[in-house]
Design a protein that fits this description.
Dimethylsulfoxide Reductase, domain 2; 4Fe-4S; 7-stranded mixed sheet; single chain; binds iron/sulfur cluster; binds ligand MGD; alpha/beta; binds molybdenum atom; metal-binding
């Protein structure tokens, strides 16, 4: 018997609505949901491969527990007993920081990942927190924290209404967008052009997105902050800066002008390899456009000046009067945001409240750099304890973080490690206990994170499309039980975790004068909550307390879970609207244009005006049918253009004596890897490109398809020492490398594999 069910796609930030065909309890087909209020039927090849991914025979079906050195299948009871027995003695003997937590990217794509990890970290009281954010967007959080007082207040380009989009270090035609949730990003860019708007792309590679652009600037990797500073300088110098209605909300405009004085287009041109006239033109076009948005993504974050570049993106939006304006860059208002508090001074954003033990990296957003995880495990210092036990949820840092070989070794030395992961992969193979979540078809979906970054305010929720198979445990319950086992409450009913959150949240809300439930009885409110289980009750509570919520009856036509369930294709909440000054939480209550940590980092940028690496530098790239390190086991998504090859410009290939397809050895500070060369003028001269997430050739994994074409781990070229100092974000782009034809032996090995 065949039926259909709706499911929001968890595979990238676009959050497309899918219509799944279910036959005999298995997903057999995925199509775009044409009635979805946001995605309107869009689907990409990854979404279309949902059935293969969901049914992957290598997915773990039961927990694994290490027994005499080997991982064996176990019951859930045995697994959680082992977690409690493994973690508690470490925490009790060596203290809270000796238990580390690593949170990976899929946590922002699951309901469980949004609702439980904050409780886990708080419950453990550990400062040893490492997440994918520090190999990704931490610079943007830090710049938002400093500018707006809220690390999560990230302005989003108004794709559907802007007249001019300046896109820096992003390739949404392959990635489908990031920190800008927009199903059918490619179609929205085409619509921008169709309505007469202009698209400028800044990228060292001529990407598919760049090919769509009116203008492509092939900047030298790692120099966007200089380019943007010179653009801001031009606006200020030529009298083009006009923040308009933002002016009363700004602090430090004069100081900003002084701070950027040295960054003239002439001074920046050589370092960026963009001539001064072009820089001026970019600035003038931005100022002249009726509306414009500057949008920077991973290519502007994972570089030595990532925080400065992220800050300058918003400085340009502010100076041209486009921040918080339709057609510019606005702050979304999601349905589970806390009820907006009144505008006014806030507590501000603190940075570096503590430091990592070994290299003294400052914390950012309570996180330490993922680049420092290996040394925090394998290095003993006079001060504090190394990380001796690790909880890894949805992360594969052996491939996604710098120097996988060192981390691989470090993980093998831990007293105890637990992984919550559907696969036995390069990272989870080190775990003493692996707790596998069910496949996505058996999980509910709500986008807590991406709705705060969406180009349109909307709200959607999909329940599990297929009931849990026998022997499966929902990931929400896995994480609730993990919290209890890790914090000395092993054996407690996991629903206690949700009820505790509900009690605390409602208890706080009734005491908050701006809350719609101020003065009411929290017990009475808790009784009003609906939902099939704890996570749904928490969602109902967040919706009802949120900006569109029913306020538990205060606004009877407002949002609540029951209403959302009546709208399975979602509810549209309208276009983004101006919100300032309300989102500001700085101490001044204003946008702080030149925050002290930024000002203190500018001398480093000034030095970069005169720096230019001699040899080749490496950048990454994403392929449409890939996703970081974990989709290479799906045959439908591998092969074709999705291959781990080194892109090399024809001139560089000739100089180095390298032929197309020939195996080459790439050497960086952290090591060397071998990959076939792919000669293409899509990369600029002096730049080579290798995708990340490959290197599936370690023993003890169960990724049978991926192991057949393992590729090379680009992050082995890094040694973990190159960071953006303000955010602790890894430098993954613009890294110096040497490239040479591979020695015969390595070449044969590669040949045998491909
Ligand atoms: N050189 C280089 N390195 C990079 C990048 C780059 O551009 N260049 N990009 C960086 C970026 S942006 C990111 S976000 C990181 C990503 O790096 P990670 O956060 O390590 O994420 P993934 O590599 O996607 O691995 C995700 C893990 O989650 C598991 N998983 C999948 N679905 C689920 C689920 O539903 N529940 C649970 N519990 N687990 C699940 C997978 O099996 C896999 O083990 O990589 C970074 N690394
Ligand atoms: N198909 C697919 N989609 C994905 C992912 C995936 O792995 N595959 N990963 C998801 C994740 S976790 C994320 S964070 C997003 C990322 O989404 P995007 O930010 O769009 O990521 P990329 O496609 O890597 O595009 C980054 C671009 O920056 C360029 N670049 C490199 N260095 C520099 C530089 O110094 N300056 C400038 N201006 N550009 C530079 C690169 O050439 C590349 O084209 O994608 C998400 N979507
Ligand atoms: S664009 Fe992203 S969310 Fe949409 S179908 Fe593709 S992978 Fe899924
Ligand atoms: Mo990411």
């Amino acid at each position: 018997m065949s039926r259909t069910a709706l499911r929001i796609c968890p595979l990238c930030e676009a959050t497309c609505g899918l219509t799944l065909t279910i036959e005999d309890g298995r997903v057999t087909r995925a199509r775009g949901d044409r009635e979805d209020v946001f995605s309107k039927g869009f689907i990409c090849p990854k979404g279309a491969a949902f059935p293969e991914l969901d049914n992957d025979p290598d997915r773990l079906r039961t927990p694994l527990v290490r027994d005499g050195g080997e991982l064996r299948e176990a019951t859930w009871e045995e697994a959680f007993d082992a977690v409690a027995a493994g973690l508690r003695p470490v925490a009790e003997r060596y203290g809270a920081n000796s238990v580390g937590v690593v949170l990976g990217n899929p946590n922002v794509h699951t309901m469980a990942g949004a609702l439980y990890p904050p409780l886990l970290v708080a419950g453990l009281g550990t400062r040893s927190l490492f997440t994918a954010s520090t190999v990704d967007q931490m610079p943007k959080h830090v710049s938002s924290g400093l500018l707006f007082g809220d690390a999560n207040a990230i302005p989003v380009p108004d794709l559907d209404r802007t007249d001019h989009l300046l896109l820096i270090g992003a390739n949404p035609l392959e990635s489908n967008g990031s920190l800008c949730t927009a199903p059918d990003f490619p179609g929205r860019l085409k619509a921008l052009k169709a309505r007469g708007g202009t698209l400028t792309v800044v990228d060292p590679r001529r990407t598919r997105t760049a090919r769509l652009a009116d203008r492509h600037i092939a900047v030298r990797p790692g120099t966007d902050a200089l380019l943007l500073a010179a653009m801001a300088h031009t606006l200020l110098d030529e009298g083009l800066a006009d923040p308009g209605p933002l002016t009363p909300h700004l602090d430090g405009l004069g100081e900003l002008r002084d701070a950027l004085r040295d960054f003239t287009p002439e001074a920046a041109a050589a370092a960026c390899d963009v001539d001064a006239d072009t820089i001026r033109t970019l600035a003038r076009e931005l100022a002249a456009a009726p509306t414009a948005a500057v949008y920077g993504r991973i290519g502007s974050c994972t570089v030595p000046h990532g925080t400065l570049a992220s800050w300058l993106v918003d400085v340009l939006n502010i100076l041209t009067g486009n921040l918080d304006q339709p057609g510019g860059a606005l702050f979304p208002l999601s349905a589970t945001d806390k009820t907006p508090r009144p505008a006014g001074p806030g507590r501000g954003f603190a940075l570096g409240r503590w430091h990592s033990r070994v290299s003294r990296h400052p914390e950012a957003k309570s996180e330490l750099p993922l680049s420092a995880l290996a040394e925090e495990i394998d290095t003993v210092t006079d001060e504090g304890e190394p990380v001796r036990a690790l909880i890894v949820v949805a992360a594969n840092p052996v491939l996604s973080a710098p120097d996988g070989n060192r981390l691989d070794k470090a993980l093998g030395s831990l007293d105890f490690m637990v992984s919550v992961d559907p696969y036995l992969n390069e990272t989870s193979r080190h775990a003493h206990v692996v707790l596998p979540p069910p496949p996505p078809s058996q999980s509910p979906h709500y986008d807590f994170a991406f709705n705060t970054l969406a180009v349109r305010n909307q709200v959607r929720y999909t329940r599990p499309a297929v009931p849990l198979e026998p022997g499966r445990m929902a990931e929400t319950e896995i994480l609730a039980r993990l919290i209890l086992a890790a914090t000395g409450m092993h054996g407690t009913d996991p629903s206690a975790v949700d009820e505790m959150v509900i009690d605390q949240t409602l208890g706080k809300a009734v005491n908050d004068p701006v809350s719609p439930v101020h003065g009411r009885d929290p017990k009475e409110l808790a009784d009003l909550l609906t939902g099939a289980d704890g996570p749904e009750r928490r969602l109902d509570m967040m919706l009802r307390l949120g900006p569109y919520g029913d306020g538990f009856g205060a606004r009877p036509d407002g949002l609540r879970l029951a209403r959302l369930l009546e709208h399975p294709h979602g509810i549209d909440l309208g276009p983004l609207r101006p919100r300032l000054p309300q989102p500001l939480k700085t101490r001044s209550g204003k946008v702080e244009l030149l925050p002290a940590p930024i000002a203190a980092d500018l001398p480093r940028l000034r030095t970069a005006l005169h720096e230019r690496a001699e040899g080749l530098v490496l950048v990454g790239r994403r392929h449409l049918r890939s996703n970081n390190s974990w989709l290479h086991n799906v045959p439908a998504l591998t092969g074709g253009s999705n291959r781990c090859t080194l892109h090399l410009h024809p001139d560089d290939a000739e100089r180095l004596g390298i032929a197309d397809g020939q195996p080459v050895r790439i050497t960086g500070a952290g090591g060397a890897v071998t990959a076939p060369a792919e000669i293409t003028d899509a990369v600029r001269k002096g730049v080579v490109s290798l995708p990340h997430g490959w290197g599936h050739d370690r023993p003890g994994t169960r990724l049978r398809h991926a192991a057949g074409d393992p590729g090379a781990n680009v992050n082995q070229l890094l040694d973990g020492t190159r960071l953006d100092p303000l955010s602790g974000n890894a430098v993954l782009n613009g890294i110096p490398v040497e490239v040479a034809p591979a020695a015969a032996e390595a070449a044969e090995k590669l040949e045998a594999l491909t």
